[in-house]
Amino acid sequence: MTNQARRDAAVVVGAGPNGLAAAVTLALSGLEVTVFEAAGEIGGGARSGELGVPGVLFDHCSSTHVMGAGSPFLRTLDLAAYGLEWLWPEVDLAHPVDSGDAGALYRSVERTAAELGADGPAWRRLFGPLAAGAQALTEEVMRPIVHLPRHPLRLARFGLHALQPATLVARRFRTEAARGLFGGVAAHLYGPLTQPFGASVGLMIIAAGHRYGWPVAKGGSRAITDALAALLIDSGGRIETGVRVRSLDQLPPAATVLLDLAPAAAAAVIGDRLPPRVRRAYTRYRHAPGAFKLDLAVEGGVPWRAESCRRAGTVHLGGDFAQIAYAEREAYQGRMPEWPFVLVSQQYLADPARSAGDVHPVSAYAHVPHGYDGDATEAILAQFERFAPGTRDRIVAATATSTADLERDNANFVGGDIIGGANTPLRLTMRPRVALDPYSTGVPGVFLCSAATPPGAGAHGMSGHNAARSALRALGAG
């Protein structure tokens, strides 16, 4: 438990991107930091390894990192000195539709608009200003909602669009390719696209994508957490793996403790010290729909019908906007859609060293109901065959990861929820509970720093960094 006699010491529980970002922030402020990780290796959702085929490298969860490349915190660190290198595919994102056409997203707004034909002017009008101010906008959006804006006009302009349902914003576009391209990114909400704020996630990711692209980390997503860990150790910190923390009483004396845990797990670790109102919020915290992951070793790559998909690091499979919206609503309401939304990562196009000869890693995950106990393998493969006939014939090896498997591998992925909680209108603005300081647990010196806190999911480290700053302010050092 915390001990004011050790004002120079801090403990972080969890060595995922947020836990390590919190630890680095504290260490760079002069604290002696120890990180405890339950698993045998660091990384959380940002890990990589071989799955069945020697030399073919897959990411365990996070794969493309638009918000990582644009992270206001990570950009302040010289992580390149610790081995982190961003790589970009020729096409950042593609979204095929049944006609054989596809919408393609590039870092360039102009190139994206030019390829969208009739919808080019509408795309340019919507995303041109947002992309131009993406760096300032990212700095605003990736902080707690209660703060003094540094760029109020840009934030207000974004807010006018972000407040709307994605279904309303999609009406700006007439072609299936443009509507599908926007809808696929909007589906990163993991919730109904008809709800208020339903457009917010899609707008932010597209704006950031036009500014930073959708890169991958060279050598796998583990390069992000490996670099953070190396910086932490260089700054005097320590990491102990294979240590499962079940109670604050297990921890050494420290001025502050940060928990990179899901809210219910944090409540269990804090125990009776947690105020009843906070305990209710943490134990009743609503999680998002789950992910069902399918990793494929594909000889010759996926035979996409749409040419842009063959060059795209990320491909969204969901059909037209209406089909995406239907599938997202079904999964959110606990029903497995026949044609689920599927996100495909072809990281090897930017990072060829992930392949073994002509056998390439292709990762896909489907949005499924929370805690889904079925097998979504066939539903995912059906989406591949829909837009890339003959994919099955090229598969050399396949590894399926269910929602239960995800949670066993990473306790923060409750029920297969890889985004840290349901993105309801309230939780998009106030998470994990309604509070002026969302990182505070109500226990002096103890803070929550997982993706359940603002700004939410992604290997960007901002939840950890923001929580650490809150902890430093409490110590009078922020």
UniProtKB/TrEMBL annotation:
InterPro entries: FAD/NAD-bd_sf. It comes from the Bacteria. It holds the Pfam family NAD_binding_8. PANTHER family: DEHYDROGENASE-RELATED, PHYTOENE DEHYDROGENASE. This is NAD(P)/FAD-dependent oxidoreductase. The lineage of its organism: Bacteria, Bacillati, Actinomycetota, Actinomycetes, Kitasatosporales.
